[in-house]
Amino acid sequence: MIDCLKMNGNGNDFLVVDNLSLAMDASALARAARAVCRRRESVGADGLLALEPSERAAFRMRLFNRDGSEGEMCGNGARCAARFAFDRGIVGREMTFETRGGDVHAVVRGNRVALDLAPVSTGSAVLKAHASVEGCDFTYAFLVVGVPHAVIFERERRRSIAEYAVLGRALRSRQDLFPVGANVNFALLSSEDSGTLDVVTYERGVEDVTLSCGTGSAASAIAGRLLGVVGDEVRVVNPGGVNDVSLTWIETDVVQPRLEGGALMIAEVRLLPEAFEADCRRPA
């Protein structure tokens, strides 16, 4: 049995476990993610977050996606990890923790958390690349905000979430463009507020459109700033909620993104052995 907490950041949901004792190794965490993140058949989540010891920070956050792959970073997940650590008395309200995508500084304010993400180098960003998938032509920006992101700016919302999932999957799978894959963000500038972006994200590892992506919100804001369509303060509206992004330029081509949004505690969960089993309807 494993005890964990079901949490979500703007609808991007996770199972969060305290692995400070290192009771589970990476392979066990990956197997657990594949098993328990199945929707309907198990508890269901976009991923599993594990808190582990760190030699240089308060703790290390590890993210295992629904498919069992280990991700470098997740903004919404990092907010959940920070609130979990504070609630469990692991750290105080303000903390710095380690991720594979860089160290993150966080401040917990009730059910909202502000994150200073690792600085992003924009010198290697690609701003106006072209790709064709599923009979559609796109112009996209590419940059790394903890994880690789493609950002496509649209003039209008003409597609359903299911259609975005098909296009996102096709783009994410273009290994000639993205050798390690990429999250794909479809961004739309608000017609009413020039500081607001509407963003729909297809997430690598989850392999579907999610209700929100924190690093995708930051990537969309940075790409929009580089293209001159938004400023340094951006309100990013995802299907699951709002992420507020602030950009501070450390150097001409280095930006520090701050990401603020919700981190909700939904349920304490005790995972029983059958949560890890295959669908019981299948014959043995």
Share of β-strand residues:
35-45%
Order of helices and strands: EEHEEEHEEEEEEEHEEEHEEEE
Number of strands: 19
With helices defined by DSSP (H or I, 4 residues minimum), what is the helix count?
A: 4
Percent helix range: 10-25%
Uncertain segments are none
Ends distance: 23 Å
For the largest beta-sheet, the strand count, sense and barrel status come to:
13 strands, mixed
C-alpha geometry: globular
**Average pLDDT taken over every residue:** 94
Global Rg: 18 Å
Content-based structural category: alpha+beta
Task: Tell me the layout of helices and strands.
Blueprint lengths: L1 E8 L2 E7 L7 H11 L10 E6 L7 E6 L4 E2 L3 H13 L6 E4 L6 E6 L2 E5 L3 E2 L4 E8 L2 E10 L1 E8 L6 H12 L10 E7 L6 E8 L4 E3 L3 H14 L5 E6 L2 E11 L2 E9 L1 E8 L13
Parallel strand pairs: 2-3, 12-13, 14-16
Antiparallel strand pairs: 1-2, 1-19, 3-4, 4-5, 6-7, 7-8, 8-18, 9-18, 10-11, 11-12, 13-14, 14-15, 16-17, 17-18
What does this structure look like?
- Its main location: cytoplasm.
- It catalyses: (2S,6S)-2,6-diaminopimelate = meso-2,6-diaminopimelate.
- The record marks 149, 203 as: Could be important to modulate the pK values of the two catalytic cysteine residues.
- One of its GO terms (molecular function) is diaminopimelate epimerase activity.
- By secondary structure, this protein is of the alpha+beta class.
- Helices cover 18% and strands 44% of the residues.
- It has four helices and 19 strands.
- The protein has helices at 26-36, 75-87, 161-172, 214-227, and strands at residues 2-9, 12-18, 47-52, 60-65, 70-71, 94-97, 104-109, 112-116, 120-121, 126-133, 136-145, 147-154, 183-189, 196-203, 208-210, 233-238, 241-251, 254-262, 264-271.
- Strands 6, 7, 8, 9, 10, 11, 12, 13, 14, 15, 16, 17 and 18 form a 13-stranded mixed β-sheet that branches.
- β1 (2-9) and β2 form a beta hairpin.
- The chain is globular.
